[in-house]
Each structure stands twice: as C-alpha cells, then as structure tokens.
User: Which sequence fits this backbone?
C-alpha cells in the first residue's frame, strides 16, 4: 500500500491575486490612509454571512469588518487559517488547543491559551487576552455574534470553490500580516503543485474517494459546484485534483448511504483514495482503514492487485483542508501515484 512521501519542493514563481465573487464569498481591500470611513493600517474584509439557523433557509447579509494590519494577538478557531498564518510567518495567541494538529503546533505562541472548542468559545478567557483579531470558519461560524463583541471577527469558511477560497484567504492573511510577497509565492507554489498532481491523475484511470469510519465505507462524491461543508471535503479528490469518478453520478449510485465491499468490486475503480475518518478524529479503539479493507473481496479489486489503494493524510483531508501547509500535504498525497 502507498504511504506519504516528503513534501513538495517550493516553486519560486509568483501569481497575481484575482478578485473573486460568489454566493457566500469574501473579498479584501487594503484601506488607504486617506480612505473615507476607515483607519489607516487596516484591511477591509467582506463576506455574505448566513443569518438563518441550522435547519432554516439561508438568509445572507453582507458583513464588512476592518482588520488591523500586523495584529499582535490573534485568536483562531479555523485550523486552515492557523495553518496559513503560521506558514506566512505569523503566530497565533489562542485557539481550541485540543483541536490543533501536531504538525501545526509550532505555529502557536509558546504561551498560547485555550480559547475553547471548535463549537464553544471560552469568552472570558478570550476577552481577558484582548485580541486584535479573531478568525472563525467551518464548524465555528456560529460563534460570530459573541466573538465580534470582543474584537474584529472574520469568517474564512470555504465559499465558492476550494481554490478560490485558498487564494482569497491566503491573499487576505498576507495583507493582514504584511506578508503579501510570501502569500503570492505560496499561491504560485500550490498552483503549480496542484497542476502537477492533476497531470498525474489524468493518466491514472478511474478512481473512488472512500471515507472509512466505524468499519463502514462511504463513497465520496464530487461537489457539483457546491463546495461547502461536507461537499467540499468529499469532492476535493475529484474537483481539485482531477480524479475521474468510477461512477458517473456517485450520489445517485450510493443514495448517500454506506457502500459495501461488493460495490467496490462491482465498479472496480483503478484507484481507491482512502480517508480514515476515525484516525482524523482520534476515535479510540477504532479499526484502522487498512484493516477494514483487508479482506478477500477487496483483494480481488484492481486497486488492491495493482497496489493502487492510496491512504490520504486523514487530518489534512478531513479536518484542516484549506491551509498552505495542508495543501502541500494533499498535493504530495496525490503525487504518490507518480512515483
């Protein structure tokens, strides 16, 4: 079975950031000293904030926040943003510490404080630190109202496509940190890496993204233009990295239900791209994905017989996706097939 190889060497090319729009996309604009209604040394960030409850029809309202340049104290609830801030040379003062992956621990301040969980903020602890900027995203979007009363708070959730969001958020955080050149260089490297990975998958035949959890198998489907929430996570292997789905309409073929080993043998993709969800979430006493797939039926598949079961980094693909270092890991995961 395939395992991860070392990270991709950085490209020194640069890209030009482009303006991005969409239903729930954000935008950034550095505020000039003489700009009306804004202080010098801030960056303006706008996004369409959903005011509706979890089970209600979305109701969007444009929200604009002025963010100070070079903030001293940053609190982050979005792991992809923590990733990008650290990769651009910044440091995070507070976060849900139990949710920070090992490979991002170095981007926390030595005296970083625990800001709560991804779903519940420790408002007292955060207010005591008097942060200059708070960043939310994904699971933590519901914290906006409370956190925005403490400090400027922005939502950097995926909105639009994965790559649009990656470019928008990296560009914005580069402006905030005064690291515009580093942000442009990182984007150029990631763009080149993604294209290299897509070139590898273009000649790799069919594939199926597979989420393994609790001994069950779930086939991941392309996002079909809706790169939000679970759609973004499930569709990455197809939408970003160009893998050709073995089934034309994965959602219809599976009806959103777990699939069987017989399903995998029947459709017989050339490659299986596997995410071990239990490993990502730290589920205790869980059976590893490789053990779940170690059976006589799977051993009859092309993917097994050709050594084309690729185990993707579970934390990168399930928890953090969207940050600079994490995207590098994802690129290297896909490039395993080019070895």
Assistant:
């Amino acid at each position: 079975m395939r395992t991860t190889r070392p990270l991709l060497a950085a490209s020194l090319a640069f890209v030009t950031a482009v303006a991005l729009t969409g239903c729930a996309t954000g935008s950034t604009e550095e505020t000039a000293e003489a700009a009306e209604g804004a202080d010098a040394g801030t960056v303006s960030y706008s996004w369409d904030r959903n005011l509706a409850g979890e089970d209600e029809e979305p109701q969007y309202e444009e929200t604009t926040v002025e963010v100070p340049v070079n903030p001293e104290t940053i609190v982050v609830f979005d792991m992809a943003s923590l990733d990008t801030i650290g990769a651009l040379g910044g440091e995070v003062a507070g976060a849900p510490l139990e949710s920070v992956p090992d490979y991002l621990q170095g981007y926390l301040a030595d005296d970083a404080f625990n800001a709560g969980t991804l779903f519940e903020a420790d408002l007292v602890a955060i207010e005591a630190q008097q942060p200059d900027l708070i960043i939310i995203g994904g699971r933590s979007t519901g914290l906006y109202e409370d956190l925005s009363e403490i400090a400027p708070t922005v939502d950097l959730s995926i909105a639009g496509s994965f790559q649009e969001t990656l470019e928008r958020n990296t560009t914005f955080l580069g402006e905030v940190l005064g690291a515009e050149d580093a942000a442009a260089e990182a984007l150029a490297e990631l763009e080149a890496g993604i294209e290299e990975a897509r070139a590898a998958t273009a000649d790799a035949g069919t594939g199926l993204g597979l989420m393994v959890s609790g001994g069950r198998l779930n086939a991941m489907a392309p996002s079909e233009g809706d790169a939000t929430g679970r759609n973004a996570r499930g569709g990455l292997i197809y939408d970003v990295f160009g893998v050709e789905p073995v089934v034309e309409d994965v959602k219809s073929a599976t009806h959103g239900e777990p699939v069987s080993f017989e399903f995998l043998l029947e459709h017989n993709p050339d490659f299986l791209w596997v995410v071990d969800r239990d490993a990502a979430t730290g589920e205790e006493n869980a059976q590893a994905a490789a053990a779940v797939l170690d059976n006589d039926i799977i051993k009859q598949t092309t993917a097994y017989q050709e050594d084309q079961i690729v185990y993707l980094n579970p934390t990168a693909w399930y928890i953090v996706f969207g940050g600079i270092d994490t995207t590098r890991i994802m690129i290297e995961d896909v490039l395993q097939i080019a070895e």
